[in-house]
Amino acid sequence: MRSLFLAAALTLAAAPAIAAPNDAQKTAAPAPAPVAKPACEGNPNALGIARTVEIDTTGGPGFGFEQYKAYDFLEQKEVVLTFDDGPQVNTTRAILDALAAHCTKATFFSIGKMALGLPEILRDVIKRGHTVGSHTMTHANLRKKKTPQEGIDEIEKGLSAVKRAAGQPIAPFFRFPFLQDSPETLDHLAKRNLAIFSMDVDSFDFKFRNAEQMVKDVMAKLDKKGKAILLMHDIQPVTAKAMPALLDALKAGGYRIVHVRAKAPAATIAEYDALIEKDVKGLPGVGVDKPTSSIVKTVPNDP
């Protein structure tokens, strides 16, 4: 019996000891999952951009069912945000800030003289990733021009001026002031491969003084249409004031933003580029302007 206990003891003594796990053998704690960065930092309920569409402007296609019914590229609950008549001090930048808060984009149809007067604002529009088109030189009603050529001159000078103010080519997108086209100007735009943008919903923002009422009116029209190229004006104070609430309402209503851009930039005509130079007022030439920091810098004071 004693021999059996002895044999058992020897067997246990011969068995390899189970070592305690060292630090290297310990199972490492799982690394914390990376925190996902919100799609629009600071605004989890941002509209963002549902999709971007590229427009081939060959032949001057028209968009916006108010006037041109050939091309319907929007799906239900999709909206293209557009702004006319700017740029303008305060209002344009307020609208840009509201758009940035929702990480979304719009198209701005700029008037030539306004662009030349406030080129730094127009360049901010472009810097923030929005599309810029043109809206004539002086916001003239082209149907009321004495001759078709006068209307064409308004279109071309406006295009050259907006490009000059932008400091780079712009989109070949055009909107008629007052939406007043004519056979002659439509033919010209077709030959120049400039797309025409009308609208599906007009905000009539210039008629409002109350931002809340404007938002309600626009949303009612959108709900009736279901989708739209929406026309607004970035020179209107009420529009600037209404924009944060309007973007919130679009999101709450399940609408999605479509950003439009061009397949190729607009080409200007040298004759009109030269004509608008008298209105430039010291603005550096396209492609030759340098940042101020490369020209002027602070240096130590003399002792």
Outline:
This protein is α/β, with parallel strands linked by helices.
Which labels suit this protein?
single chain, 303 residues, alpha/beta, TIM Barrel, three-stranded parallel β-sheet, 10 strands, 36% helix, globular, disordered N terminus
Notes on the protein architecture:
The protein is α/β, with parallel strands linked by helices. Helices cover 36% and strands 14% of the residues. The chain has helices at residues 2-14, 91-101, 112-117, 119-127, 148-166, 183-191, 211-225, 237-252, 270-275, 292-295, and strands at 51-55, 62-63, 78-84, 107-110, 131-134, 173-174, 195-197, 201-202, 228-233, 256-262. β6 (173-174), α6 and β7 (195-197) form a beta-alpha-beta unit.
Largest sheet: 7 strands, parallel
- Per the principal axes of the C-alpha atoms, what is the gross shape? globular
Overall radius of gyration: 31 Å
> In which range does the helix fraction lie?
25-40%
Low-confidence stretches: 1-21
- CATH hierarchy class name of the domain at 76-280: Alpha Beta
Level-2 CATH architecture of the domain at 76-280: Alpha-Beta Barrel
**How many DSSP H or I helices?**
10
- Whole-number average pLDDT? 88
Structural class by SSE content: alpha/beta
CATH superfamily of the domain at 76-280: Glycoside hydrolase/deacetylase
CATH topology of the domain at 76-280: TIM Barrel
Q: Tell me the series of helices and strands, N- to C-terminal.
A: HEEEHEHHEHEHEEHEHEHH
Distance from first to last alpha carbon: 105 Å
Number of E-state strands: 10
Strand content: 5-15%
